[in-house]
Each structure stands twice: as structure tokens, then as C-alpha cells.
Design a protein that fits this description.
The chain is an alpha+beta fold and 247 residues long. The chain has 8 helices and 9 strands.
Length: 247
């Protein structure tokens, strides 16, 4: 948490956003009174009010009769890949509250996506490890997640071809076995029309001619030898992203 007296409204909003994402503030929980937050952070009531308005605009909280603010039951906010890693580092929890994953797959495939091939520094048609899963929020498909991994990782972590999820981030195992540190490039965000396979993963049924726009987040990981892994997360329609990484 930032030092008392130095927080801006965005810092205060980020503090409570993390508490909500980590499950420390559960859906239906009443947010602390603004007067209490004012004293906690040593700021003006105007600053706290702006922070609370931001959380409301993001769909994380909602006002309730009696001048209270509560955490929403199911906010339509996409937790980013970067936020997912940050949560794991902070709490050790693989999943956010109300989240789980299904339909895990792992296989060797030829990479025919020019952008992914470029991210990984390989030629189109080269073999890669592809792992996929569907994240559920409160039992409903929320994110179709794809990991495309450079073949050199398979030498050190052959378990990548096993479909079951790891009990921790697989790159931690890679670091232990190779001594190489991995870094992540800034998260890329875009919107595009969903492919038919992605609509199937997200259990979305529309006419074949329907165009369904989706939010897509891409993360690229590197080690000393070059690109190692590409994450592509496709979010179900209606979800939107509010938090990125600070420069």
C-alpha cells in the first residue's frame, strides 16, 4: 500500500480492486465508509469519493440504499493475464474467487499463425506446444485461454504435454531446472471478431453469419535464449478490462 498522505484516487481504487480480485472483499460485502478510508490513507474525502466512483464505473461495486457501497455479485470485469500472475505471486492462489477451469488440452501442433510465429521467433509451420483451457466464472465460460510454447521448453519440462493443469506456474519449474529467469513483455490488448472455435469454447451459439466482437489480451514471455511462451486470452462478450500494468 502507498504511504499515508501520498495516495491518489487511482492508488486507493487499485488497493480495493486487488482486495476484491483476491477474494478478501467478497461479493455482497459492504465497502468501508469513506470517512474510514479518508483516515486510512490520509487524503481528502473528495479523493476517496473519486476512488469509489471509479470502482463503481468499473462494475466492481454498486451503491445500496442507505448510502452504503457493496461489492457486486459478479462484476463484468476481465482479470488480465498480468493480474493473474500478480495474484498468484501475492496469494499463491491459482484461481480468483468463483473461478475455475475446464477442458484442459495439451498437444504438439504446427504454428500457422504468423503473429504468434513472429512473437516466438520461429517460422510459420514450425512445431510448438499448445495448451488450452477454459476459465469459468461462477460456472459460466469467461475466458478461452491459449498458451503457445517454444519447443525448447519441452526438453526441460516434458510435462507440458500432459493435459492436466500444473499445481503452480510451469515456468517456475522451468526456472528451477534451467536456472534461467523469465520476463514478460507489456501486455497487449485488442478487440477482434471471435473465431468459430473460440465461440465453441465459450459456449456461445449464434448464427454462422453473426459477428461477435471479443476482447483479446496477449502476453509474451522470454528468457535469455529468446521468446519462450505466448498467452492469448479471449474474453467472453460483455467482459471488459479496466486494469493494465503501470509503465
Amino acid at each position: 500500500m502507498v504511504d499515508k498522505g501520498s495516495a491518489g484516487y487511482a492508488d486507493i481504487a487499485a488497493h480495493f480492486r486487488k482486495l476484491i480480485q483476491d477474494g478478501e472483499l467478497q461479493p455482497g460485502t459492504t465497502m468501508p465508509p469513506m470517512s474510514q478510508v479518508k483516515e486510512q490513507f490520509g487524503v481528502s474525502i473528495t479523493t476517496v469519493n473519486r476512488a469509489y466512483r471509479l470502482l463503481k464505473d468499473e462494475g466492481l461495486t454498486t451503491p445500496r440504499p442507505g448510502a452504503e457501497t457493496v461489492v457486486t455479485r459478479r462484476p463484468n470485469v476481465a482479470a488480465t493475464g498480468a493480474a493473474r500472475l500478480d495474484r498468484i505471486a501475492r496469494t499463491g492462489k491459482t484461481y480468483a474467487p468463483g473461478e475455475t477451469s475446464i477442458n484442459h488440452t495439451a498437444q504438439l501442433r504446427s504454428c500457422h499463425d504468423p503473429k504468434v510465429a513472429d512473437f516466438l521467433g520461429i517460422d510459420v509451420g514450425d512445431e510448438v506446444v499448445v495448451r488450452s483451457r477454459i476459465f469459468l466464472r461462477d460456472g459460466e465460460p469467461a475466458v478461452a485461454a491459449l498458451s503457445v510454447i517454444h519447443m525448447r521448453a519441452l526438453v526441460h519440462v516434458p510435462e507440458l504435454l500432459q493435459p492436466q493443469p500444473f499445481d503452480r506456474f510451469w515456468q517456475e519449474i522451468y526456472k528451477e531446472r534451467t536456472g534461467r529467469q523469465t520476463t514478460k513483455s507489456p501486455e497487449r490488448r485488442t478487440a477482434r471478431l471471435a473465431a468459430a472455435s473460440e465461440l465453441d469454447m465459450l459456449d456461445i451459439h449464434v448464427p454462422e453469419t453473426a459477428a461477435v466482437p471479443v476482447l483479446v489480451l496477449v502476453n509474451v514471455f522470454h528468457d535469455d535464449e529468446g521468446p519462450l511462451e505466448v498467452w492469448e486470452d479471449v474474453y467472453a462478450p460483455g467482459l471488459w478490462q479496466v486494469e493494465g500494468e503501470k509503465p
